[in-house]
Specification:
Blueprint lengths: L1 H10 L2 H10 L4 H23 L11 H25 L2 H8 L2 H12 L6 H17 L11 H26 L4 H17 L4 H8 L3 H25 L5 H7 L2 H13 L8 H16 L16
């Protein structure tokens, strides 16, 4: 649980870096390319030094890493930023966090994970909590059909990361290998649809921008994805996706603390409480009918 919470918390800090690089003239897509390509390079160097054997994957399993990189991170990024452009950050955030619904459905289909009352209630709490936290409930926001579809697409792609990663873990791959190839394929796919020369120019503008670019990649990409993938070894995909909804709560708190953005009263505070409650609820022990043993990962 702590690994997934750490991942969600780190992802919640991404807005600070995004605003900084947007102010320097990079588009959202270029900022995403900067984050992913630096992450791919840093992680590749780390694996080369740590254990080169982690580069080895079987050709028959290539589809898993193509899926986790291009679909779950690359196409996800494109859909998410398009949703923001066509609607608003609040609407895009809520549509993104329909992901736990899709993770639960995919896990039911592919891994035969069982639903229980705790999961269902926690799922409802997390979706409602996200909507309240970002102001969709209690506000007067609207969304176009295209904005809605791109936002929903981002939720589906985001959900598929848990599924592709679980397939890779079942095949015996290390979380380091999964994260490595996810970054490589995601970085290449996103960079291909932006102007990389402009990204390099901004990144190398000064020592400060170089340092912040490295920090951006490590804090918002390398560490959280590694923590999340490692966490999937210990908790179910559906459980992890619900715990990770702590991200928009952290983003809202960071926005209030750093950028003095107001939290909608009372819905924003109720939303934060609901998301935190969902994380607690999903980790309460479930008693079976035949024994007092808690539910374990199968």
């Amino acid at each position: 649980m702590l690994l997934i919470l750490a991942a969600g918390t780190l992802w919640g800090c991404i807005g600070i870096f995004v605003r900084y690089f947007n102010d320097l003239g990079l588009s959202s897509m270029q900022t995403a390319a900067l984050r992913l390509m630096i992450s791919a390079i840093l992680f590749s160097v780390f694996v080369l030094i740590f254990d080169r054997k982690l580069f080895r994957i079987k050709p028959k399993d290539l589809w898993i890493f193509l899926g986790s990189g291009i679909v779950s991170v690359g196409i996800f990024t494109i859909c998410y930023f398009q949703s923001i452009a066509l609607s608003s950050l609040s609407v895009a955030s809520v549509l993104l966090y329909t992901a736990p619904v899709f993770v639960m459905l995919f896990s039911l289909i592919f891994f035969k994970e069982k639903l229980n009352l705790n999961k269902i209630i926690a799922l409802i709490f997390s979706v409602l909590g996200c909507a309240m936290t970002v102001g969709v409930i209690g506000g007067s926001l609207s969304v176009t059909l295209s904005g809605f579809l791109f936002g929903l697409g981002s939720g589906v792609c985001y959900a598929l990361y848990s599924i592709f990663s679980r397939f890779a873990l079942v095949c015996g791959y290390s979380p380091l290998t999964i994260t490595l190839y996810t970054f490589i394929f995601a970085g290449v796919s996103v960079t291909a649809v932006c102007r990389p020369t402009e990204v390099v120019t901004v990144m190398t503008h000064s020592f400060t921008t170089v340092l912040l670019s490295l920090l951006f990649a490590v804090v918002s990409c390398v560490l959280p994805y590694l923590c999340y993938t490692l966490g999937l070894k210990y908790v179910r995909s559906s459980t992890a996706s619900i715990i990770a909804t702590i991200e928009p709560v952290v983003a809202t708190v960071m926005g209030a603390a750093v950028f003095h953005e107001a939290v909608v009263f009372p819905f924003g505070y109720i939303g934060i409480a609901l998301v935190v409650s969902s994380v607690v609820l999903i980790n309460l022990p479930i008693k079976s009918k035949n024994s007092d043993k808690t539910e374990k990962l199968t």
